[in-house]
Amino acid sequence: MPEVALRSVTERDRGLVWHPYAPLDGPMPYAAESASGVRLRLRSAERAAVEAIDAMSSWWCAIHGYRHPALDAAAHAQIDAFSHVMFGGLTHEPAVSLAERLVALAPGMAHVFFADSGSVSVEVALKLALQYQAARGRPARQRFLTVRGGYHGDTFAAMSVCDPVDGMHSAFPGVLARHLFAPRPPAARLPLDRERPAASVDEVDAWAAGFRELAQRHTDELAAIVVEPVLQGAGGMYVYDPECLRVMREVADEHGLLLVADEIATGFGRTGRLFGCEWAGVTPDVMCVGKALTGGYLTLAAVLTTARVGEVITRSTFRALLHGPTFMANPLACAVAGASLDLLALGWQDDVARIEHGLAAGLAPARDLLCVKDVRVLGAVGVVQLDRPVDVVRVTRAALARGVWVRPFRDLVYTMPPYITSEEDVATIGAAIVGAVQEVHGR
């Protein structure tokens, strides 16, 4: 035991713990020693401690930063009462209160199913769509229509509606269900504006015609349309024209399909609207939320549905949505989520607008770099897209040397900072990303 204590946590981690999309003998991770506000205290394998602005909100969920007094207080208060009880046959105030808040925030939604994570909420939504169609006397409708470039999670059903090329379909051949993929919608012109077209009318019309034709051809097979509204997250931080989302709503109505909106990354203000669907003025039949739901404190997600969907399920053979996680509606997570919504109610719009303005200015110099293909900003999301794959290890290290923690992927160096990030810190994030890209990938 003394020998183990002498080794750093990063050394003990190596070869023992798998990290996301990384081999056991991959690059040494940094050890997080503490976090407060928007700052992380990290220690490298060389045992050098650094303080860095978290430009990632811990994969987009810590929107209020770390050690927020209100969230800490909610967690402590709930632990003093009880941290968990089963949800089968029992209920509790944190869950009911949170459900009431969610349906009040999401126009058109009437019912809530709590899940463990975003990926699981997508699984639940897909099962729900199949149950819905069977209850409507259409049990053969067992496929889903989506668009290329999407990402909906890493569990099996969720993977099956992720992009078939950039997703993990090739790693699990013959196992994932085969669904229908329309072309990626046309890219939006930024900044988005509800009052004017975001892409050319011809591009949208051509895409819409193809989408309608695909749905028409497979009507009798399809249960639902599944999509991330306006912003595709892990599929490439890609912003598409909101008019395309309106087309999907129309197609769903024409063919008796459910429209499932995956708001896990886009929900709770990240794009500049409380929910991404608001950019198109669209109400989905089913909405999945997660990530920022608890302000990054605990894992929790929810599936919201309209009253019509709830009525169909209630009148069906089973009368229930066939899913039931052990930690469903965990009271501790629900209590913290309620406190997080309290903080949002105090006003997130000004914070997101301030971050959007700061990122637009701070990342603009990247457009002058020859290695940069595109720079785009939507709400509290800033993206520098390269013309080549990012050297993740070197860019991460270069940004950290400038006081900022980022986690690039594929050809993207991006940021989704906490909403409490100051103007000065947003400027530091922009300068660090531009400087790191220039240092590693040249002018």
From TrEMBL:
<feature type="modified residue" description="N6-(pyridoxal phosphate)lysine">
    <location>
        <position position="291"/>
    </location>
</feature>
<comment type="pathway">
    <text>Cofactor biosynthesis; biotin biosynthesis; 7,8-diaminononanoate from 8-amino-7-oxononanoate (SAM route): step 1/1.</text>
</comment>
<feature type="binding site">
    <location>
        <position position="59"/>
    </location>
    <ligand>
        <name>substrate</name>
    </ligand>
</feature>
<comment type="function">
    <text>Catalyzes the transfer of the alpha-amino group from S-adenosyl-L-methionine (SAM) to 7-keto-8-aminopelargonic acid (KAPA) to form 7,8-diaminopelargonic acid (DAPA). It is the only aminotransferase known to utilize SAM as an amino donor.</text>
</comment>
<protein>
    <recommendedName>
        <fullName>Adenosylmethionine-8-amino-7-oxononanoate aminotransferase</fullName>
        <ecNumber>2.6.1.62</ecNumber>
    </recommendedName>
</protein>
<dbReference type="InterPro" id="IPR005815">
    <property type="entry name" value="BioA"/>
</dbReference>
<comment type="similarity">
    <text>Belongs to the class-III pyridoxal-phosphate-dependent aminotransferase family. BioA subfamily.</text>
</comment>
<dbReference type="GO" id="GO:0009102">
    <property type="term" value="P:biotin biosynthetic process"/>
</dbReference>
<keyword id="KW-0663">Pyridoxal phosphate</keyword>
<comment type="subunit">
    <text>Homodimer.</text>
</comment>
<feature type="binding site">
    <location>
        <begin position="325"/>
        <end position="326"/>
    </location>
    <ligand>
        <name>pyridoxal 5'-phosphate</name>
    </ligand>
</feature>
<feature type="site" description="Participates in the substrate recognition with KAPA and in a stacking interaction with the adenine ring of SAM">
    <location>
        <position position="21"/>
    </location>
</feature>
<keyword id="KW-0093">Biotin biosynthesis</keyword>
<dbReference type="GO" id="GO:0004015">
    <property type="term" value="F:adenosylmethionine-8-amino-7-oxononanoate transaminase activity"/>
</dbReference>
<feature type="binding site">
    <location>
        <position position="407"/>
    </location>
    <ligand>
        <name>substrate</name>
    </ligand>
</feature>
<dbReference type="InterPro" id="IPR015422">
    <property type="entry name" value="PyrdxlP-dep_Trfase_small"/>
</dbReference>
<dbReference type="GO" id="GO:0030170">
    <property type="term" value="F:pyridoxal phosphate binding"/>
</dbReference>
<dbReference type="Pfam" id="PF00202">
    <property type="entry name" value="Aminotran_3"/>
</dbReference>
<feature type="binding site">
    <location>
        <position position="151"/>
    </location>
    <ligand>
        <name>substrate</name>
    </ligand>
</feature>
<keyword id="KW-0808">Transferase</keyword>
<dbReference type="InterPro" id="IPR015424">
    <property type="entry name" value="PyrdxlP-dep_Trfase"/>
</dbReference>
<dbReference type="InterPro" id="IPR005814">
    <property type="entry name" value="Aminotrans_3"/>
</dbReference>
<feature type="binding site">
    <location>
        <position position="291"/>
    </location>
    <ligand>
        <name>substrate</name>
    </ligand>
</feature>
<dbReference type="InterPro" id="IPR049704">
    <property type="entry name" value="Aminotrans_3_PPA_site"/>
</dbReference>
<keyword id="KW-0032">Aminotransferase</keyword>
<dbReference type="GO" id="GO:0005737">
    <property type="term" value="C:cytoplasm"/>
</dbReference>
<keyword id="KW-0949">S-adenosyl-L-methionine</keyword>
<feature type="binding site">
    <location>
        <begin position="118"/>
        <end position="119"/>
    </location>
    <ligand>
        <name>pyridoxal 5'-phosphate</name>
    </ligand>
</feature>
<keyword id="KW-0963">Cytoplasm</keyword>
<dbReference type="InterPro" id="IPR015421">
    <property type="entry name" value="PyrdxlP-dep_Trfase_major"/>
</dbReference>
<feature type="binding site">
    <location>
        <position position="324"/>
    </location>
    <ligand>
        <name>substrate</name>
    </ligand>
</feature>
<feature type="binding site">
    <location>
        <position position="262"/>
    </location>
    <ligand>
        <name>pyridoxal 5'-phosphate</name>
    </ligand>
</feature>
